[in-house]
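Appendix B, Record 12. Input sequence as logged:
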Amino acid sequence: MTTIGTFLIRLPSPIGRLELTSDAERILSLSIEHDGHLPLEDTPESPSPLLERAATQLTEYFAGTRTVFDLPVTPSGGSAFQRGVWQRLSELGFGEVTSYGELGRSLGRPGSGRAVGGAVGANPVPILIGCHRVLAADRRITGYSGGSGVPTKVWLLDHEGIEHRS
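Logged structural output:
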């Protein structure tokens, strides 16, 4: 169930239904349908102007007419390290890619690829914070925690024209 002051909206997409939450000022989470389910599917929708704007921008992204999101996004939770990873991910643009190792080095933590992978996988706002843009150093897909997993990541990478290996 959503908490007081939290808004909720769902929308269709080519990778499954999406569920977004926000407070009055920021997007807090985005979930991609997994095995036909969403985390808050038993909670009634509670739209807000911000979530309606997010739904429009996501629809434009999936239609190929938007490459930049203009939304206030503040992932909920996470450790200081995770929030640092999410901040770096938010700086990646449409079609840009990085590796787990590069992310670790950019945070002053070389050799922390596994910890970076855990932080990337814990991103509560996928797509808006492009965790799908992280690949192994050889451009291999090593996993994806959103939606249907690797097939969802492949769709997003292909949509943005990012070369990758399975």
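The first strand starts at residue 7 and ends at 11.
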